[in-house]
Amino acid sequence: MASTRGLRPRGHPVFAAVYDLLGRAAEQELLGAERRRCVAACRGRVLEIGAGTGASFPYWLEAARAGRLETLVAVEPDPHMRRRAAARARRLGLKLELLPAAAEALPFPDASFDAVASFLVLCTVDDPARALAEVRRVLRPGGTLAFLEHVRASGGGAARWQRRLQPAWQRLAAGCRLDRDTIFAVSAAGFAELDYRTRRLPFPIYRLVTGTARRT
Ligand SMILES: C[S@@+](CC[C@H](N)C(=O)[O-])C[C@H]1O[C@@H](n2cnc3c(N)ncnc32)[C@H](O)[C@@H]1O
Asked: Is 102 a pocket residue for ligand 1 (Cβ < 6 Å)?
């Protein structure tokens, strides 16, 4: 039976309703291109964790049309996000399996995917170490983790202000944390060949990392 761990039955209806609108400019200016880079690193049987409203789905469709995608599975624990993702997939004509599950309890056997993608999710999961252990478990040896995540400022006034704003931000942004050190977490989870680049975003998000790592 599938685990209910980490599911969010009540979810965040308001956040889900405004998510695409709030992100539209950033998607056009920066995030869309970074999503495309991550998708290009994935081949074969692919899992996307925390798919949200399906903002990455147009890029998966491109990959499917280019013959780079064998199957796409996405998990999303919030029912309001998931409903929007399902509607977007239908609109696009994207074939995928969309399941209610949290990254910390993935309902898949070991080594079932060639690649796992995480877009702006490791900032929000309750337990990043547990989520990354699950991602590692479901990836085949040699498989790819592709990620686009915002991470904490490395120090100074920006880091101080992120810590101050954290409680209010977390409430407004459906649990998102400004202070995650995701690059460290990926490395600590035992991934190898970590390759990433950092982009600057407007405060309070501040630093965006796009990269890949290999499951050993
Ligand atoms: C900032 S949104 C990003 C959505 C989407 N990945 C994107 O790129 O637009 C964070 C997403 O992570 C989901 N999420 C929260 N906790 C999660 C968990 N434990 N496992 C998987 N996804 C989770 C949220 O429901 C939300 O859809």
From this structure: yes
Give the tokens for residue 54: 């399906």
pLDDT tens-place string over residues 89-127: 999 999 999 999 999 999 999 999 999 999 999 999 999
Does the beta carbon of 103 sit less than 6 angstroms from any atom of ligand 1?
yes
- In CATH, the architecture of 13-215 is 3-Layer(aba) Sandwich (3.40)
- DSSP assignment of 180-213 equals --HHHHHHHTTEEEEEEEEEE-STTT-EEEEEEE
User: What burial class does residue 21 get, using C-beta atoms within 10 Å of its C-beta: 0-12 exposed, 13-18 middle, 19+ buried?
Assistant: exposed
Closest CA to 68 of 28, 108, 41: 41
Size (the chain), residues: 216
Mutation to probe ligand 1, out of 124, 126, 148 (largest number of atoms < 8 A from CB): 124
The contacts of residue 118 (CB under 8 Å, 6+ apart) are 48, 49, 50, 103, 135, 145, 146, 147, 148, 149
5, 104 contact by CB (below 8 A): yes
Q: Give me the residue spans of the domains in the chain.
A: 13-215
Place of tokens 């147009």: 58
Q: Please give the number of the atom of ligand 1 that sits closest to the Cα of 81.
A: 27
Regions of the chain short of the pLDDT cut 70: 1-3
Is the C-beta atom of 121 inside 6 A of ligand 1?
A: yes
3 state DSSP class of 102: coil
